[in-house]
Amino acid sequence: MKKLFFVFTLAALAMTARAAHKLEVVATLPDLGAVAAEVGGALINLNTLANPAEDPHFVDPRPSFAKILNRADLLIEGGAELEIGWMPPLIQNARNARILPGQPGHFIAAEGMEIKERPTGPVDRSQGDVHPSGNPHFMMDPINAGVLAGRLAERLGKLDPEHAAQFTANAQKFTDELKAALPDLEKMIAPMKGQKVITYHKSFTYFMDRFGLELFDTIEPKPGIEPSPSHITSLIQKAKGAGIKLVLIEENRPRKTPERVARDIGAKVVVLHHMPESGPGRYLPWMRGLVEAIVQASKNP
């Protein structure tokens, strides 16, 4: 009888431990973390490596990253070479076979997306920091956030089958919220449809395509290459008389050159958060904030 009681006790403890275990999820970037938080909810422990103001191409690895990655059950990476400058060594040094490339614990968000601006010919350093797989800033389109949510729910469900239905329900709820909000955002920005803008880097391509803005040119002469005085002079000459009213830059960009361009062509610099904070309830307010900032700037040139 005592032996049977002992067996039942061990089984109950094992079930309790499994129920109490939460998947350890690590997102490389805050926009990925914002969606992961919606899908995983209270069923995951979420860590995000980069902060919202960092350039996702050049995140400074911290000693704490190795410990975080060592415990991870799932690593969510943007992909499309966005983190190629800093993530591969971290993955190798984490000593965690679960998150190695090709394993169930390594999730690449770009694999489920329609990637824009894929190079059609050979890519080399003379072209600047061109991504061979295309523009990796796909999270700036809210439709892509919904696509990511569905794929994350599927992967989390495979890692934690007991809660697969909840992950799916969470993803559907988030996607429904995005779809419900999109018509209002499109209506807000509709008067600007077709308007040409200058950006610093091609961070906003997906956002602009979704909401009907058009790229005139970039402050950078090539991706990742800082502008020379001759490039800026040429850009100003081309932009004069083109009706450019807005110069869009990320919050981590230097202001002096964009402000000079805007001043000389009669436009206004709009500083935008290029990533949301990580966590639940962050993605949609971020997207709404981008639309509102641009609309407000267009009303007050």
What does this molecule look like?
The protein is α/β, with parallel strands linked by helices. It has two domains: 21-182, Nitrogenase molybdenum iron protein domain (Rossmann fold); 186-299, Nitrogenase molybdenum iron protein domain (Rossmann fold, 3-Layer(aba) Sandwich), CATH 3.40.50.1980. It is 45% helix and 12% strand. It has ten helices and eight strands. The protein has helices at residues 2-20, 30-40, 63-70, 87-93, 142-159, 164-189, 205-211, 229-239, 256-265, 283-299; strands spanning 23-27, 44-48, 74-77, 106-108, 196-199, 214-218, 246-250, 268-272. The strands form two sheets. A four-stranded parallel sheet has the order 2-1-3-4, with helices on one face. It has a four-stranded parallel sheet with strand order 6-5-7-8. Helix 6 runs parallel beside helix 10.
CATH architecture of the largest domain: 3-Layer(aba) Sandwich
Q: Please work out how many helical segments DSSP would assign.
A: 10
Q: Biggest sheet: strands, sense, closure?
A: 4 strands, parallel
Number of strands: 8
Radius of gyration: 22 Å
Shape: globular
Q: Helicity range of the residues?
A: 40-55%
Low-confidence blocks of residues: 1-19
Q: Which topology of the largest domain does CATH recognise?
A: Rossmann fold
Strand order of the largest sheet: 2-1-3-4
Overall pLDDT, averaged? 90
CATH hierarchy, class of the largest domain: Alpha Beta
Distance between the termini: 83 Å
